[in-house]
Amino acid sequence: MYANLAARPQFNPASGENANGAFQGMLADGVAAAKTLALESRDLLRGHKAVEIMHNGAVYRLHNTKQGKLILTK
């Protein structure tokens, strides 16, 4: 039911990039993008109804409802 995030490429905090390049190309006209990173929910969910997110040692669940809303629970 959940996407296995452990098998996905790891984020490199030193360079700000991950192995699959999902965050590359965030520059527009040579100027750094806004400080807030914007991602499409479909890129996070990848066809799944829910994903688990590890944050500070806790597991959170991001769930897409039938109404198309997102719910984040701990």
Walk me through the topology.
Layout: E1 11-12, E2 17-18, E3 27-28, E4 31-32, H1 41-45, E5 50-55, E6 58-64, E7 70-73
Q: What keyword list fits this structure?
A:
74 residues; mainly beta; Complement Module, domain 1; three-stranded antiparallel β-sheet; two-stranded antiparallel sheet; 7 strands; 7% helix; globular
Explain what the structure shows:
- It is a single chain.
- The chain has 74 residues and is mainly beta.
- The protein has one domain: Ribbon (Complement Module, domain 1).
- 7% of the residues lie in helices and 34% in strands.
- The chain starts with 10 loop residues before the first strand and ends with a strand.
Structural class: mainly beta
Q: Helical amount among residues, as a percent range? A: under 10%
Strand content: 25-35%
- How far apart the termini lie comes to 17 Å
What's the alpha carbon Rg, rounded to whole Å? 14 Å
Determine and state the CATH class: Mainly Beta
What's the overall geometry?
A: globular
Short description:
This protein has 74 residues and is mainly beta.
